[in-house]
Design goal:
The protein is mainly β. It is built from 1 helix and 10 strands. Bound molecules: FE2/S2 (inorganic) cluster (FES). FE2/S2 (inorganic) cluster binds next to loops.
Length: 119
């Protein structure tokens, strides 16, 4: 699994997150209760980029979904699936994150397509 340097360890402070585009995919890295978490920063409800951290939740500014930082699970019933979790680790003063494959954007686009119901 390919890892990329994301930021200096000290720049991700407790209760905050940072967003960066890696391999064309927005990625959010957060620190909560001393632990680092990383997700593809795209809301599975309607494709908005996630950047607003309200620990212990990640808030989607588009329609208000709230995702648990620790698991990526949605809690408001708007998104149907959890956030895509990425591997993250701190070493030698830097934070490294798994490089997401470009296919994750296609996966999310598929999830957010309007469902065609019976007519
Ligand atoms: S796009 Fe995130 S709640 Fe709608």
């Amino acid at each position: 699994m390919e890892m990329a340097r994301f930021a200096k360890d000290t720049t991700i402070r407790e209760g905050t997150g940072r967003v960066k585009v890696i391999n064309g995919v927005p990625v959010i890295v957060l620190r909560h209760n001393g632990e680092l978490y990383a997700y593809v920063a795209v809301c599975p409800h309607a494709y908005c980029v996630l950047f607003d951290v309200k620990a212990p939740m990640i808030h989607c500014v588009c329609h208000g979904e709230l995702f648990k930082i620790e698991t990526g699970e949605p809690t408001m019933g708007l998104a149907r699936t959890p956030l895509i979790k990425l591997r993250v680790e701190a070493r030698e003063g830097n934070v490294y994150v798994e490089v997401p494959g470009r296919e994750v954007l296609e996966e999310i686009a598929e999830l957010t397509k309007p469902r065609s119901g019976p007519s």
